[in-house]
Design goal:
Oligomer: single chain
Number of helices: 5
Structural class: alpha+beta
Length: 375
């Protein structure tokens, strides 16, 4: 009996780790995937926060095709390669994060002994990760460089993404990354072996050394920021943007790329396909509930529509009046409430609530409409 109990207890951490790996693996890069993206013209970043609606229905894209490919690195086990514009980026990835370990093109080769996290897991609103990266860099095999820096990553938004193809994606997370990159070139170092000896043994940099160097205003650093919108059921960002400045109205401007959901649905991705299928089934079930309520006496011409996607409820108004919505259980206990604008969209996050049947009350111009839904 004691032996059986011991084996059970020892196996529990493995089960927990395995479950977490399955949950996060739907966002990992996958060898063999090839993505086609389009450049977005005049893109604006939008707001951060919870229950945000990012309305990109009217974005314009150019006709050029920007391709990203993923393949395994033939020389290193477990390393996956991302190929963009003749540059190869190398990554390690697991249930905790995706980490950049270096990159190369026709002129530059960089290898990090301290990796740079680019995506932390699990994706959840408010999650923050920071750290430093460090390694060696060679330009045309002649100039030997120490390359290092610091990064800050925050999941600064969760909400709904409205897309130009008419699709609405709920449970979307926006990941904001800020990076400072520094380089020190060594004219008296002529080989990679000498460079590694210098940066590893003779003059190593600690995390505090890197932070202090970046904080010194006399040292030149390269500042960069990226935003990525990840939607539930899709492995790669729907939209990815790199910041370059501010608009006249103070809004943040960026160079952005759009990878349409339809494009990603072409990939062989059973894991995310299952998530999308379950979501469609849940939406159909909830619509059936709504139709049933309407047939039992509710107005069939409701001035609003409801879409339930996992733990997210989206209410769209079809009138010129502001409206409000409350979420309660069958006993009348209210759990959530929010207000929306005329002809607007309201998103209610139900994360943390038990799964089951609830009632949505929508009030427009003093009229109250009620519908049963499942969360």
């Amino acid at each position: 009996m004691k032996k059986t109990l011991l084996i059970t207890l020892l196996s529990m951490p493995l089960l927990l780790v395995y479950g977490q790996t399955n949950n996060n693996s739907r966002y990992l890069f996958k060898s063999g995937d090839k993505l086609h993206r389009q450049r977005i013209e005049n893109f604006s970043i939008g707001e951060k926060g919870n229950d945000i609606v990012w309305d990109y229905c009217n974005i314009k894209t150019n006709d050029r095709d920007y391709v990203i490919e993923y393949t395994l690195d033939g020389d290193r086990d477990g390393v996956i390669t991302e190929i963009i514009n003749n540059t190869r980026y190398y990554y390690n990835q697991d249930s905790v994060s995706i980490r950049n370990i270096g990159y190369e093109n026709n002129n530059i080769i960089a290898e990090y002994d301290r990796t740079e996290t680019i995506l932390p897991f699990p994706l959840e609103y408010g999650k923050k990760v920071s750290g430093v990266f460090h390694g060696c860099c060679m330009y045309c095999e002649n100039l030997m460089i120490r390359q290092f820096g610091a990064y800050d990553i925050e999941v600064d938004g969760k909400g709904t993404l409205l897309l130009p193809d008419g699709k609405t994606l709920n449970n979307v997370y926006r990941v904001h990354s800020v990076k400072e990159t520094c380089q020190i070139a060594y004219d008296d170092v002529h080989t990679k072996r000498e460079l590694l000896e210098l940066i590893d043994s003779i003059h190593p940099f600690t995390a505090d050394s890197i932070t202090a160097f970046i904080s010194n205003p006399n040292n030149h650093t390269k500042h960069s920021e990226t935003y990525k919108w990840y939607a539930e059921g899709y492995r790669y960002p729907i939209i990815e943007a790199a910041v370059y400045g501010k608009g006249i109205d103070g809004s943040t401007k960026a160079t952005a790329y759009y990878c349409a959901p339809d494009e990603q649905e072409k990939l062989y991705d059973k894991e995310n396909e299952k998530i999308r299928t379950n979501r469609i089934k849940q939406q159909a079930d909830n619509q059936e509930h709504i139709n049933s309520q309407q047939s039992n006496g509710y107005d069939n011409n409701n001035p609003y529509s409801i879409v339930v996607n996992g733990t997210s409820i989206t209410i769209s108004s079809h009138t010129d009046s502001d409206f409000s919505a409350t979420l309660s259980d069958s006993a009348g206990i209210t759990y959530k409430s929010a207000r929306g604008k005329a002809n607007g969209i309201l998103n209610i996050d139900c994360s943390g609530l038990r799964h089951g049947e609830y009632v949505i009350h929508v009030e427009i111009d003093g009229n109250i409409f009620s519908n049963k839904i499942k969360v």
